[in-house]
């Protein structure tokens, strides 16, 4: 019985082995994706930086506060700061000029006197390029508002001290006002996931590529192969020999799974040695998830094969299922809209992808991804069962 | 024991009766042929007997085993399907290995048998080439030997030589005769008269799902002996068939390939009447011919067999 499964499996592998072009394609397309995405978004240093111009008053006057304000910006890694002197033109014209010629995203016009002792507020004019990259803009805006907040608070503190030194406030009043002025003291502590080192873009990319690979190869090649065998009569001929259906199915599943896992292995090896991929969690658990994920995608392929008359038709149906699944499973982009997140829950790849990310990036163990893994297993059994049941019914003698 | 026993076998596809209550026996060691045009129900019968489709009603046994018992039957029979179902992306030898394993042939037996069969088909040299690179004739030869790896007791061949050139066809014929001599029972379907005539010990003439006659090719032809076949070489015209069929004693007339073929009761008595009926028409020659299986088929079914 098992010997016959092996021969069916061997046949599937030998057929791929004899198609060198197909082999090259199967191995290289995940790598190609890695190359494209890796170079497009990877890069060194901090992922996003923003160009900001500061325009100082033409009078050339400055005070300690203004210098401190500028220094605060300059100390931020994500900011590429350049200083210009107001040339007297309108601020719109100057801003446009700086955006076009200097490539800046934000322009901050500093006021004549940075600290007013007459009780009036400081005017800080901030202009920004509406058409600029949204990520850069939001980083720039966010940084600016936090710098202003911090800076206001420190000016306030210094003023309080100056006032109290003149004996106008008691020590208690001073503490009360100080506490009220900034009631929240937030502390930011960066945490690197359990394992080691800091994570790179590639570490986030590869789990998605693994999920994508198992989906494309699993769904399209499983359905295509079965339908092609049916069209050219091979399936019928094999069924006419003394071999059980179970042996045929097991053999086909084995060969397909081996092909998908082999592709993924190559992908992981290249990621490891060329991009120094960092898998934080257990390798064994990663392998188990890949195995189950591959089986579930092949199950979908078998299911499709029941509805397709030709291999081309099977490919079309596969595409129809794969495209929404690829994007909605959150392989490349995290999902934002609420209804889309609910929709993504119906795709098995979502759970496989979540489990993979959990283990590979966050170093989760079996208890933390138990739910996702459980759903994946249930789904795998369901599609395989359904696909095989339908296949048996349509081919029964 | 009979190799095959069929009683009242029926196959319906929706309302169409593809096979309509056929009954026949095949003796062990016999080459038995189903002769009929496309769509006569030949393949449907083979598919039922080889457990590839389910019968609608009736009974059939292969070596005493009911065809409902597919598991047992599959081990005993070899099948050569009409369509070339080969794994083009495997080599010839790998194709043989696949089916040998599926039929539980031991490894050393496979080595011996595959070499023997490939040699017999003259393709030993190309055993390690991918099948997709083979010519049509080679594929057909491989298709035949794929059903033989496990030394079946009976081999079913569904139109094994359709579309082959005469040389390749002759090779398959000799091959089938040889394995039959070694004791294998053969059931083949064909729509080639010469094939049935050359190979078969007995022939069943099948048309529209029914068996019209079963006998040895010789006896079938002899039954025609009550009739004579004469061939008249002459030009065709629209009234010719009607004119000669009007003559009492002429059973059937057809015009084919430049000559008029007449199936008649008694040559000597009718020749003059026929000559009269064809009056005024220039006749190149008249000859009496040995009846062929084709003539038998025409006289039984009233139609001619064509490729």
Show the largest interface: A-B, 20 and 28 residues
| Number of separate helices of chain A | 14
Globally, the shape of chain A reads elongated
* Order of helical and strand elements of chain B: EEEHEEHEHHHEHEHEEHEHEEHEH
- Please outline the major beta sheet of chain A: 4 strands, mixed
Strand percentage of chain B, roughly? Answer: 25-35%
Record the strand order, biggest sheet of chain B.
6-7-8-3-9-10
What best-fitting shape of chain B do the alpha-carbon axes yield?
Answer: elongated
Order of helices and strands of chain A: HHEHEHEEHHHHHHHHHH
Write down how many β-strands of chain B occur, each being a DSSP E stretch of 2 or more residues: 14
Instruction: List the uncertain runs of chain B.
Output: none
Provide the gyration radius of chain A in Å.
31 Å
Helix percent band of chain B: 25-40%
Explain briefly what this protein structure is.
Chain A has helices at residues 2-17, 20-41, 64-74, 91-102, 134-165, 171-181, 201-231, 234-239, 245-275, 283-305, 311-328, 338-344, 348-362, 370-395; strands at residues 50-56, 79-85, 106-109, 125-128. By secondary structure, chain A is mainly alpha-helical.
Summarize the SSE layout with pairings.
The complex is a heterodimer of chains A (397) and B (307).
Chain A (H helix, E strand, L loop, with lengths): L1 H16 L2 H22 L8 E7 L7 H11 L4 E7 L5 H12 L3 E4 L15 E4 L5 H32 L5 H11 L19 H31 L2 H6 L5 H31 L7 H23 L5 H18 L9 H7 L3 H15 L7 H26 L2
Parallel strand pairs in A: 1-2, 1-3
Antiparallel strand pairs in A: 3-4
Chain B lengths: L1 E12 L2 E12 L3 E5 L6 H8 L7 E6 L2 E2 L3 H7 E4 L11 H11 L4 H14 L15 H11 L7 E5 L7 H16 L3 E6 L2 H7 L2 E6 L2 E6 L1 H7 L4 E7 L5 H6 L4 E7 L2 E6 L2 H11 L5 E7 L3 H9 L6
Parallel strand pairs in B: 3-8, 3-9, 6-7, 7-8
Antiparallel strand pairs in B: 1-2, 1-4, 4-5, 9-10, 11-13, 11-14, 12-13
